[in-house]
Request: fold
Amino acid sequence: MIVQLITSFIASATFCILFNTPRRTLFQCGLSGMLGWMVFLLLDSEWKSVVATFFATVIVGAVSQVFARSFKMPVIIFSVGGIIPLVPGGLAYDAMRRFIEDDYTTALQAAVQAFLLSGAIATGLVLSEVLGQMFRRGKR
Amino acid sequence: MNNAESGTTYEIIDLCLLAGKIMLQNGAETYRVEDTMTRMAASLGFPGAHSYVTPTVIMFTTSRTEQPKLFRIAERTTDLQKVAEVNDISRRLSQRQITSAQARERLALVDDAAHAYPAWLQIVAAALAGGCFTIMFKGSFSDALPALLVSGLGYAAAAYLQRLVQIKFFAELTASSLIGLLSFLFVQAGIGVETDKIIIGSVMPLVPGLLITNAVRDLMAGHLISGLSKGAEAFLTAFAIGTGIGLVLSFVS
Reply:
């Protein structure tokens, strides 16, 4: 578990270097990635991975909004790093490889699951954004 | 607001288009580009501005009677630092902290600026990310070491080839077949155990995971054209990576 947390932190932070995020936000990017991956790992053992991904993304979105407020920067900077460990890149690759190996049934399964997972991520991000907006409106 | 302060209509259109162009070229979401452009126009005295943004083109008009202006986007990268800076400039502009002339000066600086991190640092970052992903996907530490080397080399090859051949699909295909070949060779040489784990970790810096998510998100927000074209771009990249790896694996196994 601790190894997973450290690697997810490094993976998210280094991925943010690939996306050229501002230097002073790298630590926060890694942090939101680590949080998302931790929630995912905790939920994945009990529920389906789509559900786990959804809740992990909601957490990532909420944390990113807090960071974005305090840094006065767009939310995308922090949410990108946060969702990096969750995006089904490996699954998309797996689907494509199976297609090329003529294993269409497994390929289609993986492709559909990759699509569902990215749908869950997008829904989670939008939900946390909507909740944040409602929260701010309620305070006013 | 008088004209001497805000400049002519054309200057304002130019300013908004420049801001939109920088944001779109560097990976901002579609709605943020549209939002920023209309907000900047509103703060400069054109509350009825409209914009239509897709990944390859920006259309912008200040009012219903004005003819729309168009800007073509040819190259796209991800540089979130520039997005953050343009966002900052637009916020200051609407809070009247800076004038439109100052805003244009700053936007031009941002447009010309180099990436935040040098190429070698990005390659090192890609290498580290690849190694970490191998462990996150339940690979062992003996697989992480070759993944570290392979992903760094693969990312460097993709970046170099993209400058050389211009066609992104071909660059990604070649880089991923290099990744497949190197992973296979490493396992053959006794460094690393599972070829699959090494490959999955190493292709992660190339995989369009973010693009897929952005595509679904654009679709949900009602930006149908942007969503579909981003989805197509993501599919092409995934296809290139899959083909590259599959090509090598079908030869060697």
Q: What stands out?
A: The two ends of chain A are 41 Å apart (CA to CA). Chain A touches chain B through 48 residues (CB under 8 Å). Helices of chain A lie at 2-18, 26-44, 49-71, 76-83, 89-100, 104-139.
